[in-house]
Amino acid sequence: SPENGPSQSGRRSDRTPKIYTKTGDAGFSSTFTGERRPKSDRIFEALGATDELSSAIGLAGEFSSEKGHEFVEQLHKVQCMLQDVGSNIATPLSSAREAHLRRTSFSEKPILELEQWIDSYSEQLPPLRAFILPSGGKSSAALHLCRAVCRRAERCVVPLVQAGEADPNVAKYLNRLSDYLFVLARYAAMKEGKEEKIYIKPEP
């Protein structure tokens, strides 16, 4: 009907904020503290790796959900924690005011929770007797990919921590998260009855 035509939908979209701001077209972006830095700055490299990690976990979560894995809720919680990781990274301590620090501090509690999860799954797994290749079904392989992205995110964050720009707990969380993702990948393969491929040295 005419009421639902393009003109009306156009008016509705005029009231909707645009997804593009154009503020980064010159190659700069803003930290949470308001600093303008080049997009090549290591803060944005770390933020990008963290965002990529959350996206990879989202994909792994979808595969895992299709298989009915109960740990999917944990993966969603991890994604929420990665938002807090990003907030901390985006708040360089050198320019943060007290109000910024209150909003973006990162505690040790989520690290301890990851350790509890790791211990719980590790107790149920057969011992490692060979080098495991990323494999074991779609859920497992996707979680292995998450682990690799997590390691890269950690490598991006460590220099920020060493420079006093990010909270050490953020690096610790990512370090523990990669361990969790590895154990979870093995657990997913076991629960699905999928074979984990192992490294076999090629014949000379």
Automatic annotation (TrEMBL):
Signal peptide: none
Region Disordered: start-end pairs: 1-37
InterPro entries in the record: CblAdoTrfase-like, CblAdoTrfase-like_sf, PduO-typ
Assigned keywords, A-Z: ATP-binding, Nucleotide-binding, Transferase
UniProt-recorded Gene Ontology molecular function terms: ATP binding; corrinoid adenosyltransferase activity
Composition skew (Polar residues), residue ranges: 1-10
Ranges in a coiled coil: none
Domain Cobalamin adenosyltransferase-like: 19-188
GO biological process per UniProt: cobalamin metabolic process
The reaction(s) this protein catalyses: cob(I)alamin-[corrinoid adenosyltransferase] + ATP = apo-[corrinoid adenosyltransferase] + adenosylcob(III)alamin + triphosphate
Domain of life per record: Eukaryota
Oligomeric and partner information: Homotrimer.
Protein task: Converts cob(I)alamin to adenosylcobalamin (adenosylcob(III)alamin), a coenzyme for methylmalonyl-CoA mutase, therefore participates in the final step of the vitamin B12 conversion. Generates adenosylcobalamin (AdoCbl) and directly delivers the cofactor to MUT in a transfer that is stimulated by ATP-binding to MMAB and gated by MMAA.
Record family assignment: Belongs to the Cob(I)alamin adenosyltransferase family.
Record protein name field: Corrinoid adenosyltransferase MMAB
Lineage: Eukaryota, Metazoa, Chordata, Craniata, Vertebrata
Encoding gene (name): Mmab
